[in-house]
Amino acid sequence: MSSPSQTARTAPEESKVTAPYGSWKSPITADVVSGSSKRLGGFAADSFGRLYWLESRPNESGRGVLVRQAEGESDEPTDITPKDFAVRTVAQEYGGGAFTVLEDAVVFSNYKDQRLYKQSISSRDSVPLPLTPDYSGPFVCYADGVFDSRFNRYLTVREDRRESSANPTTTIVSIDLSSTNHIKEPEILVGGNDFYAFPRIDHKGERVAWIEWGHPNMPWDKSELWVGYISENGNIKNRICVAGGDPSIVESPSEPKWSPEGELFFVTDRKSGFWNIYRWVESTNEVLPVYSLDAEFTTPLWVFGLSSFDFLNKNSIACTYRMNGSSYLGIIDVAQNKISLLDIPFTDINNITSGLNCLYVEGASAVHPSSIAKVTLDDQRSKAVDFKIMWSSSSISSLYRPYISSPELIEFPTEVPGERAYAYFYPPTNPLFRSSPEEKPPLLLKSHGGPTAETRSSLNFSIQYWTSRGWAFVDVNYGGSTGYGRKYRDRLLGQWGIVDVNDCCSCAKFLVDSGKVDGERLCITGGSAGGYTTLAALAFRDVFKAGASLYGVADLKSLAADSHKFESRYIDNLVGDENEFFQRSPINFVDKFSCPIILFQGLEDKVVLPDQARKIYHALKAKGLPVALVEYEGEQHGFRKAENIKFTLEQQMVFFARLVGNFQVADEINPMKVDNFD
Length: 678
Hints:
Strand 2 and strand 3 form a beta hairpin. The N terminus is likely disordered. The chain has about 675 residues and is α+β, with helices and mostly antiparallel strands. The radius of gyration is 25 Å and the shape is globular. Among the domains are: about 90 residues; about 200 residues, 3-Layer(aba) Sandwich (Rossmann fold), CATH 3.40.50.1820.
């Protein structure tokens, strides 16, 4: 039996089937998408250079499993995590930094009880042993930990919810590793501020660096980098603010790391407004740039454990940065203040770490799904001599290559004269079908979450699901997105619900005016903050004909009152006072809605509570608009179970096709009931 790619390659142009956009048959099914949605939760290399990664598996209900690379060419990677454990932390709800590897042991956060466990990884049958107390009641969560060999302890960020789940206390604590027979209460080393991240110890165990910030700031708005000096008994005896403490300088330092020689390097966006790498001169308490470029050398601190640079030797730093919609991997020569770029196939890079004469790189491209690659360097560590994929979220990209739509980076004018915004446009692509010359495709516009985030051009089978069926798809980096410097990011301050909505509408109109899409079949979708932008665009603008909101915000006042601590003051800077909360909340202007909407919501969501979706659903149903609500048991903020990922995708497709598409979906999908329509 021939594969889909073989069939597609042998089909001559004249034999293509002429069929309406949206009705094309595609082998990239919802089952394929949900089965290819493994998520990477972090990776690390041990002192022997062996690679470990954390993958979330949809076919195991999103269970997080720590995996070690194969020992030999013919071997398979080894699952480290026992079946009755799952590696994941819910610190700050978004987690990250859930495990740390050191030689023959790993410390990890177990999802079910949020306790830290230590597990030997020299034996497959090793049993994880708890390191932290088993508290009754609300969780105590841990993330972003490091080993301290000087005192045989583990330093980590702790989020303590025992007194208040809504306003937990965050500190940096130390955990004794000398004995697991008698579990001690963690000792608080640093506390007093609202949030902490990146506790990092120098190689002698004499100094610890960390990042902290307080309400109402988010870590990308304004944060501080501190260094503490460790006494003979393990306490912090003195501390100094390295960056972020000067009120005349607006900056958000991140990612502190100690070099092998004991120098502190970090990323901050002072002066230029771009996150660049700096170093701290301890003797003079100066902060000096390492290499300056109008590019972003890190990403916003949504999750713990970011790693955008690492040391190769005392004069060489491997780094990744974003510029004009693309990622680059380079080696900075610190002494000569120059950078050499490495030629690898990835155009999107998220995290890197150094191995033995190599780099491990998390990245993707238009034809590579999210992957980890081993980049072997030459003897001078200045060139890449080999590139090998070690892990991939999907193994099917080559099989469906002819059906993959390549993204086009577009710039389009905003409503502000002279300002531009950015997006990735994906045209309909299917080697077996074509449309009639007079038809233009329907458009699905995606508004990303965050809203302080960035959409990228990496291979995403959720997008290819649409384009291979004859939809045009556009992924928008509206004002407020990262990757373009602080000035672009700050466009959204005080303007959430205005700038993002305007930019999404401007993008859709730009594509219509360019003749790329059908102006009568414009649809919009988004999750979380993107769900808010979706609902706001449908309530306050008359551009889109239907929309889908995934765990989106309908009521800003409720979001401010009910959201978790990390984001509880987020919209203070994004929106303003309570009057603006009211004016920009779609739930308060149901009379302005005029088109069909479908909503999807996890019932265990602590970021956007389920009541938000229910409110907008009941209001639209009472108004008489076609509306549907899907609620998932056991899902939180974002869907992790394969069956729910599949159902969400299929129901969006059939919903849009039935209500605005004017075509019949080729797949056999049983559509759910739509109120005021069926």
